[in-house]
Structure formats: C-alpha cells, structure tokens
Amino acid sequence: METVEEALRAIGRTVGIQDLTLGDVVRVAAIVLVGWLVIRLLMRMVDRMLDRSRSVSAIKPYIHTAVNIFLWVLLALMLAGTLDVDVTSVIALLSVAGLAVSMALQNTLSNLAGGLVLLVTKPFSPGDFVEADGVSGTISAVNMSYTTFITPDNKEIFVPNSQLSAAKIINYNRLGRRRMDLKFTASYDAPTAQVRAAIQEVLDAAPGILRDPAPVVYLSEYQSSSIEYLARLWTAAADYWDVYYALLEGVRESFARHGVEMTYDHLNVHIVER
Hints:
With 274 residues, this protein is α+β, with helices and mostly antiparallel strands. It contains eight helices and eight strands; from the N terminus they run αααααββββαββαββα.
C-alpha cells in the first residue's frame, strides 16, 4: 500500500500536484465518469435542438464539435480545481495563446465567420446563378472559408466568404422566374401597329416565355433617329438566356418579313443649291 501511495505522490509531483492520494484518484475517476455521462446527455439535448432548427442544419457538425470541446475543457478545469491545481496561470496562458492565434489567423477567422453567416442566412444555394462582389456565375459549393463560382465561360472562382457576407448579392434563381426587357428600334416611317405586330408575332411563337403575365410590347421612347419599342416578358430563370438570344434573332427576321426598317444612329445631310 505504501508503495502505491509513494508512486502516486511521485506522479503527483511530476504533474504539479502535491500529496496525490488514492482517494484523490478515486474522486477524479468518479468526477470523470459523472462528467462523461453529463456531457453525453447535454450533447444529445444539443443535437435535438439543432435538428429542430433548419437554419443551422448546414453548420450542425461545427456547432456540435465546438460545444463538445467546450464541455470537455470545462470538465478538465473542474478536475484541476478538485486537485487544488492552480488554473489561473493555465487560463492566462490559454488566453494569450488564443489572442496570438486569432491575430495570426485573422483573415481565416474572418472567412469562417462569413461562412457561418452565409450558411445560416442562405442567400443562395448550390445551383443558383448569382452576381456578387463583381463575380457572376453558378454556385458550385459553399464551404466554411470559400464559395465556389462556375462562370458562364467555365472558370472556377473561389471567393472568400468574408467578402461575400458583406457584399450585395443578386440571386437570379431564388424566385424561380425572371422578367426580361428587350428594346428594339424602328424607323419613323414604319407604322406603330406594324412594328408592334412584328414583335408580338415573335413573342407568341417563342418557346420558354411564360403566358401569365402575358408578354406585351410598348412604344417606349422617341429618339433622334428612330422610335424605341420595349418588349416585356417573363421566363423561368433557367430559360432566360435561351429566350433572350432566340428573341434577338427572331425579331430581326420578323422585321424583314414585315418590311420594318431596324434603324441605327445616322446623320442626314441635305445640300441646298442656290
């Protein structure tokens, strides 16, 4: 028995604990066992709360890990207090180390904070076409540090989350459909009804245009060398560009069939003979 107590005292002196006894070991073991059971119970409660909240489903693993680490650190400090270990210096050392790490990883932590904001608020999801911070493209992935864009010309761009969380974000897919305003110019010599009929003919035949609300054509502006007409219509977000280019080609052909001159800026010079 004396050999065991001497061994315990030697171990205690090694880790900075004076007069470590068998009773202290039993007490520590009991606290660890109870603490482990309490931590398991608390983590189950935390997981249930996270499962009920859809807004944090994307960051559930990170919250679970952070809470678990916090509880185990708290248990370790309680054990140190039970064994009369001075934890003040340990806490101070951890504070200084945490400050140094936060200063060294300032940009990384800023990106992580931005990632948490994006994952909770969800201004976009993978597959959405988004314009933000001077970059536009389809969202490929949203990670804790970076968001991946795939541009229309098939470039992969990684944008730091700290920039995105503070930027104005335009999501073209969120509402499911988009309005398109296309402007065409025609000669002053072309009757208004004829021009509108030529544009409307293309709108009625083009696939991908939503019929509710129905597409319409307006005379929008009298310009110096032409009259401007506005075609306003709605499409599904995924069909936007296909409809856009189809209408540009279709209206040009329709103008040619109806004898409507598609004008351009020009200057008429009249020579007067005297």
